[in-house]
Write a structure and sequence with these properties.
Blueprint lengths: L4 E7 L2 H13 L5 E3 L14 E2 L9 E2 H14 L3 E3 L3 E5 L5 E5 L4 E9 L3 E3 L15 E2 L2 H4 L7 E5 L3 H10 L5 E5 L9 H8 L4 E4 L2 E9 L2 E9 L5 E5 L2 E4 L3 E3 L30 E3 L11 H27 L1
Parallel strand pairs: 1-2, 1-8, 2-5, 8-19, 10-17, 11-12, 11-17, 12-13
Antiparallel strand pairs: 3-4, 6-7, 7-8, 9-18, 14-15, 15-16
Length: about 325
């Protein structure tokens, strides 16, 4: 085979992709991991302290955790390429993968672990002021809003964590949520409510983000219960309303659900295309945790090993 051929290729990184690489590497398959060019390591690279990953009772920074898992994968023979996949051809037994850098890789088996990306509000001003007051990463950009009013939009764990973190910087932090109940876990809600620097504006939806040539100045709101409108001053707007699976390059290639998540066969990681598997947030819209993604990465690697064993045995018969 050509030098670009691999028994198994992992598209994407994060807990799922790197864990899959660990298991495939230990099984002797020397997998290639196409980790991504912009944010290799997934969402944990933008996370501060991770407190619920087993084995770290005192917590661990997200980037440190991902570096350790990646190091473990390379220790067992995984090769990491920092590039983005632009197209795939899964129509034959040997799969073809093309990257943004122009490289073409072929493989017997593929694990897709491209995860998900930040969901947008899609309101006027969001795109205009992205990078000039609108942010999707509190740990990346919080420092730039020291002593300035900040709003956080969302009702999940990420929103609570972001709001708590941003109180280190902002003159005020207001958490805006469209309902009066939260999706976040009780411990995260209690922590946010216990921080007297966080104000809560509930039953409210952002309708526009306003600004000038210097950046964001305020956000417009509508009350979801009464229909009334208001405006809140803000220089930093942090959006934490969930994620969209990164499957754009898979449309028409793999069956996806209505939200764009890859469909798999029951509790396995098998897709409907033989030799193609999926793990992590790209197929999981329910649990969405680092540990569950890592577990799926393990399962995907084991599914790949079974698949490779079957096709190798069939060729020997």
């Amino acid at each position: 085979m050509n030098s670009d051929f691999h028994d198994a290729i992992v598209i994407g990184s994060g807990p799922a992709g790197y864990t899959a690489a660990i298991y495939l590497g230990r099984a002797g398959y020397a997998p290639l991991v196409i980790a991504g060019a912009i944010t290799p390591g997934g969402q944990l690279m933008n996370t501060t302290e991770v407190e619920n990953y087993p084995g770290f009772p005192d917590g661990i920074l997200g980037p440190d955790l991902m570096d350790r898992i990646k190091e473990q994968a390379t220790k067992f023979g995984a090769r990491i390429e920092y590039d983005d996949v632009t197209s795939v051809d899964f129509s034959n037994d040997i799969k073809r993968i093309t990257t943004d850098g122009g490289k073409v890789y072929t493989t017997k088996a593929v694990i897709i672990s491209t995860g998900s990306e930040y969901r947008k509000l899609n309101v006027p001003g969001e795109k205009t002021y992205s990078g000039r007051g609108v942010s999707y990463c509190a740990t990346c950009d919080g420092f730039f809003f020291r002593d300035k009013p900040i709003v956080v939009i969302g009702g999940g764990d990420s929103a609570m964590q972001d709001a708590d973190f941003l109180t280190r910087f902002g003159s005020s932090v207001t958490l805006i949520h469209r309902r009066d109940q939260f999706r976040a876990s009780k411990i995260m809600v209690d922590r946010a409510r216990g921080n007297d620097k966080i104000n809560f504006t509930l039953n409210s939806r952002v309708t526009a983000i306003n600004g000038d040539d210097k950046g964001v100045t305020s956000v417009d709101l509508v009350d979801t219960a009464t229909g009334g409108t208001s405006t809140i001053p803000a220089n930093g707007v942090f959006v934490a309303i969930g994620f969209t699976p990164v499957t754009g390059f898979m449309k028409g290639v793999l069956p996806l659900d209505e939200s764009g998540y890859i469909l798999v066969d029951g509790a396995s990681t098998r897709t409907r295309v033989p030799g193609v598997f999926a793990a992590g947030d790209v197929t999981d819209k329910v649990y969405r945790q680092a540990i569950s993604a890592a577990g799926m990465g393990c399962r995907a690697a084991l599914d790949v090993q079974e698949y490779l064993g079957q096709i190798d045995n069939s060729r020997m018969e």
